[in-house]
Amino acid sequence: MASNRQTTCPGCGGRFDNITGPTHAYMISSSGCYAAFNRLLAAEYSDPALRTTHRLTVDTYAVQHAGDPNSRRAVQSVGLHLARLKLQLTHDLPPKETNDVMLGMSEHKATLIPLAPPTRFTLTVADVAPRAGTKQHSAKVRDWAQATWDDYAAHHDYISDWIAKTIG
Ligand SMILES: [Zn+2]
Question: For residue 15, what are the β-bridge partners?
Answer without folding.
Answer: 8
